[in-house]
Amino acid sequence: MTLKIFARKTAKTLVIALTPVALLTGAVLGAPMAIAMEQILSVAPNTLPLSVAGTAGGRVAIPRAIVPAGAGRPSKSCLGFASLEANHHLDLDAASNSLTITVNSFGSDVDTTLAIKTPEGQWLCGDDISATNKDAAVTINSPSAGRYEVWVGTFDGGYADYELSLN
């Protein structure tokens, strides 16, 4: 199994990640320019666990704007607030036994959440790991090959730095 991770962090006029770099220009001369860069990691099974950093949260309600009603929606609603675009794109090129995606907010008071869209269009949601750990985790049993989109949110709409771990 090889896993590619695409991480995109956005701000009003600057989008930052590691490689490659593409310059985007505004439609109007003199409009703000944004730099779009993506971090792409290819990982063999013997290199797991793997982790990437980011900022959780946003102003978009996950259950209303990101996880649509209808086919693929989980019976338990995804919770929290995130950015409209996924924080990470995980490309899995072969099926494996299981994949656990865990958020670590470094002991902050922020309650993190996860919303994951599978290659088949199904949604998986994660909230508190335990009664005393407000970080989120999702275990995917027998994940299929393809692209997984991952939103890392916060329960109350705040923001928090995090480390996303894949095991």
Give a written overview of the molecule.
The protein has one domain (41-166): Jelly Rolls (Sandwich). 3% of the residues lie in helices and 47% in strands. The protein contains 1 helix and 16 strands. It has one helix at residues 62-66, and strands at residues 3-7, 9-10, 15-16, 21-24, 34-37, 39-43, 50-57, 60-61, 81-82, 88-92, 98-104, 112-117, 123-126, 137-141, 146-154, 159-166. The strands form 5 sheets. The chain has a 6-stranded antiparallel beta sheet with strand order 6-1-10-15-12-13, with no helix packed on it. A 4-stranded antiparallel beta sheet has the order 7-16-11-14, with no helix packed on it. Strands 2-3 form a two-stranded antiparallel ribbon. The longest helix is centred in the middle third of the chain and has 5 residues, at 62-66.
In short:
The protein is mainly β. Helix content is 3%, strand content 47%.
Features:
single chain, 167 residues, mainly beta, Jelly Rolls, 6-stranded antiparallel sheet, 4-stranded antiparallel sheet, 1 helix, 16 strands, 3% helix, globular, disordered N terminus
General form = globular
Binned, the helix content reads: under 10%
H and E string: EEEEEEEEHEEEEEEEE
What's the alpha carbon Rg, rounded to whole Å?
Answer: 16 Å
| C-alpha end-to-end distance | 12 Å
- Count of individual domains: 1
Count, helices: 1
Quaternary state reads single chain
Strand order of the largest sheet: 6-1-10-15-12-13
Under the CATH scheme, which class? Answer: Mainly Beta
Strand content: over 45%
The largest sheet is:
6 strands, antiparallel
Low-pLDDT runs: 1-44
Q: What would the average pLDDT be, to the nearest integer?
A: 74
Give the beta-strand count: 16
CATH topology: Jelly Rolls
Second rung of CATH, namely the architecture? Sandwich
